[in-house]
From TrEMBL:
<dbReference type="Pfam" id="PF12399">
    <property type="entry name" value="BCA_ABC_TP_C"/>
</dbReference>
<keyword id="KW-0067">ATP-binding</keyword>
<dbReference type="Pfam" id="PF00005">
    <property type="entry name" value="ABC_tran"/>
</dbReference>
<dbReference type="InterPro" id="IPR003593">
    <property type="entry name" value="AAA+_ATPase"/>
</dbReference>
<dbReference type="InterPro" id="IPR051120">
    <property type="entry name" value="ABC_AA/LPS_Transport"/>
</dbReference>
<dbReference type="GO" id="GO:0005524">
    <property type="term" value="F:ATP binding"/>
</dbReference>
<dbReference type="InterPro" id="IPR027417">
    <property type="entry name" value="P-loop_NTPase"/>
</dbReference>
<keyword id="KW-0547">Nucleotide-binding</keyword>
<dbReference type="InterPro" id="IPR032823">
    <property type="entry name" value="BCA_ABC_TP_C"/>
</dbReference>
<protein>
    <submittedName>
        <fullName>ABC transporter ATP-binding protein</fullName>
    </submittedName>
</protein>
<dbReference type="InterPro" id="IPR003439">
    <property type="entry name" value="ABC_transporter-like_ATP-bd"/>
</dbReference>
<feature type="domain" description="ABC transporter">
    <location>
        <begin position="4"/>
        <end position="243"/>
    </location>
</feature>
<keyword id="KW-0813">Transport</keyword>
Amino acid sequence: MTLLEAVDVTVRFGGVTAVGAASLAAAAGQVTGLIGPNGAGKTTLFNVITGLQRPTRGTIRLAGEDITGRATHERARRGIARTFQRLEAFGSLTVRENVLVAAEIHRRHALRRSRRQQAPARVTDRLIERVGLDAYADRPADTVPTGIARLLELARALALDPRLLLLDEPSSGLSVAETESFGDLLRELAGEGRAVLIVEHDMDLIMRVCDRVNVLNFGAVIASGTPAEVRADAGVQAAYLGTAA
């Protein structure tokens, strides 16, 4: 089932078009990639989907509902969660407290009653274990390595029990082994019925975990398809991936 639909999204800043009539979709149960050169408009498109940026034109739908005019917190209540390219953890709180804050807020405002019945502390402990943060749980967030902070942001997003999970450069700072485990976790999360949309420069990760990949260049979607189709696309090779030697 298609959960997210971004249709003809355009964002202009004065005379600059950051995103131009871009359309993409993300299906429940799948990992969808969004790749492209720096400055292609990927984070801007994420900001439109989550309500941080109002589009000049275009429509965002979640499970068929037009949410283009909805505020960010209203989208979160409907099941959208995200991480950021620039780390946004609460530095003075511990890793556990960061996740607990999200779990407590979500319990208070959840639209689904069954979600409110889960104790925030229990949700927090389960997520910390699931993403592999046990050894860092009681450390202040601003003292942990970058890769661990990325996992913290993932756990905090998952505390919202999202239907749609948007991840912006989530593997930055992870080791090769950690990235391998992280990719497996993404497949698990999608397998539970979530739609996962990921912006990432690690092409090995993208090609391994994604069901579909969209390529953004100068604000426009220039290709969309399976990883194999995108890798073989001549336009994508010229704009981003390069050609094999």
